[in-house]
Structures are given as C-alpha cells and as structure tokens.
Amino acid sequence: MASIDTPLLVVGHGPAALVAAKVASGRGLSCLIVGHEPIVDDQPVVLDEESLRVLEPNGVLGVLRPYASARAPFTIAPTLFEQALKHHCVADMLVTVYDRMWVDEQQVDEQQVDELRPDGGALSGVLTDGRSRWELRADAFLDVSALPTELNGAIREAARFATALVDGISESTATG
Q: Distance (Å, rounded) from C-alpha 85 to C-alpha 111?
C-alpha cells in the first residue's frame, strides 16, 4: 500500500479547515485537507477586526474582495468565503486538498504528544475514498469539528491552532 506523510492533516467541514491550512502554509508548513465540505450559509457576515488581522497577512483578503457584499465593513457570505478560499488553497503549493476522502483506522500516537501540537500527538491511519487505500501519517492533525462553524469564530480558532503549531515546530527546531 502506498503511503502519504504530511506535517499537518486537517479534517472536517467548514471554514476552519481552510483557514488553518492557509495560516499554516503562510508560515511554511505543508498540510493536507481531507474531506472538506462547505457549510451552506448565504447570510452575509461582517468580519471582525481579529478575523481581518488573521486573513490579511496570508493574502486571503485580496482573494475574497471580489466576493464581498460590502467592503466597509468587510462583509461576505460564509458560502462564498469557503468557495473562494478553497480555490486559493488548491492553488497553494503547500496545501493539498482531497475531497470525498476520509481517514479510517485512525490512531493518535500518545507517545509523541509534545509542544508541536496543542492538543495531542501524531496521527496514523488509512486514507481512503472507498475504493483505494493509502497509509497515512501526520505529524499533527486538526479535526475542525471541535471548532466553531460561525465564520469569525472559525477564523480565529483555526488561526490560533495553526499559529501555535508552527510556533511549536519553530521552537523545537531552534532548541533541538
């Protein structure tokens, strides 16, 4: 069976998966998004200041501007946010997106719990689309089902996770 190794595996639905991947890739960390499905919500949301601070340095606001229903304050429907950001993730050399796939036989390696991942250790399992199977190993993972689906909350929490992860890797590399 072929294998896939990734520094960060992001699993789940909604905007948090995409934001975590973009923040991590913006800081040089490769990641794999598996099984993303958008949250369907066409009700425009005003992005708060913290969300704008997260998105601006990662080049995301420029991608989202054509989809905004208002620019002052920046307002966008969550469905359009996810569509535009997903296309941006697909074009990002450090982000791989696999739709219609899931992780089977998932195991968290509790022996590898360390500062690299704020909430646990490495993950191993089998990535599948129901027909084919690949061994999967991730140094860290994020299951976004535990994060908010509300747009501003998803942006903030996903960015916090990705930032803590990359900072932990940087610190361990500097001290190791």
A: 35
- Compute the distance between CA of residue 112 and CA of residue 104 in angstroms, rounded to an integer: 20
DSSP β-bridge partners for residue 9: 32, 141
Cα distances (angstroms) measured from residue 105 to each of 43, 116, 137: 37, 23, 12
Return d(Cα 28, Cα 30) in angstroms, integer. 7
pTM exceeds 0.90, yes or no: no
Residues recorded for the chain: 176
- pLDDT digits over 66-87, tens only? 999 999 999 999 999 999 999 9
Helix count (H) and strand count (E) of the chain? 5, 9
142-173 pLDDT per residue, tens: 888 888 889 999 999 999 989 988 888 767 66
Q: Where are the domains of the chain?
A: 3-175
3-175 domain in CATH 3.30.420.10?
no
Q: What percentage of the chain reaches a pLDDT higher than 90?
A: 64
What are 95's strand-pairing partners?
A: 31
Q: How far, in Å, are 1, 27, 39, 55 from residue 30 at the CA level? A: 22, 9, 24, 18
- Tokens coding 142: 């994020």
**Once rounded to an integer, what is the mean pLDDT over residues 82-100?**
93
> What type of residue sits at position 159?
A
Distance CA 124, CA 101 (A): 15
